[in-house]
Amino acid sequence: MYPKRMIVTISLVFAFGCAGEPEAEEAATPEPAFDETAFTVVDAAAFRELIPADAGVAQLATGLQFVEGPVWIDSDGGYLVFSDIPANELKRWDAENGVQTFRAPSGSSNGNTLDLESRLVTAQHDGRITRTEADGTIVTLVERYMDTRLSSPNDVVVRSDGTIWFTDPDYGLGDREQETPGNYVYRLDESTGETTAVVTDMVRPNGLCFAPDEATLYVADSGDPRNIRAYVVAEDGAVSGGDVFASIDVGFPDGIRCDALGNVWTSSGDGAQIYSAAGDLIGRVLLPEGAANLAFGGPDGMTVYFTARTSLYSIPALVGDAAAR
Asked: Fewer Cβ atoms within 10 A, N terminus or C terminus of the chain?
């Protein structure tokens, strides 16, 4: 309870401290609400940094078989390349022409990325990592580990030192017997020609991406227990650790991307989920179909494209890819 003198003082300031009528308090501006049919928001402040409040999900194409591995290419006006695995094709999408065939056959292509010279690098279920040269020539970069044939390379990323990192689970073996000793994550150093197994303790390593500083490698394990693990990467490329970063509660993690703020975006059974660098769920992108992969792209690098079973979807974003160069 205030003493009497303090009460008088406060009353005087209120009554005589300003000329005329007291100013009315301004009504608080309501926070913009996200479309609940398109998004589930868990951390509102973090979510607002990533996706515009007026954003929605757009279906860009449908009628495909099972699409994967999107990557944005800036040349020729800008377009998205992605895989349709059962069709054995690489597809191309742009806003003007829609979906067209980019390459057929594609070696049962899955994941795609760009190297430091913006050349397309592809993980193929036929047991190879390939690169498409500027003249269109397709070069096999690696197809064997030691004296064994690779199983079915699934996803691929390129580090800023030029090394190529890829996963090789057994999903696409078909009738072939697995020759490698396990489902591993590999690093290819083209300068030496050496392929090194850097992660050997996962059930079915799938999507992978680097944190913005490349000191952390995230790898999705789509086998049990369906989580994303974080590995410490030394400057020389040596890998250690492997703590669980996040566990996916709907479906399983497949393709993953890290944005420039360090958040991890992962495909999931409900569409996609976004996690902070601390591994906390920020929110979900709800798609009509479970997503298999995703990529940042578009003219400004701030559109997120989702390959989701038979369709291609997109949303606008306020952030770009951690690996944008």
From this structure: N
CA-nearest of 241, 286, 277 to 258 is 277
Q: pLDDT tens digits for 72-112? A: 999 999 999 999 999 999 999 999 999 999 999 999 999 99
Q: In angstroms, rounded to a whole number, what is the distance separating the alpha carbons of residues 220 and 206?
A: 5
100: which residues sit within 8 A by CB, 6+ positions away? 91, 92, 93
| pTM of this prediction exceeds 0.85 | yes
The C-alpha atoms of residue 95 and residue 108 are separated, in whole angstroms, by 25
Cα(277)–Cα(160) distance, rounded to whole angstroms? 20
Residue 187, beta-bridge partner list: 165, 196
Q: Which of 166, 158, 172 is nearest to 198 (CA)?
A: 166
pLDDT tens per residue, range 194-211: 999 999 999 999 999 999
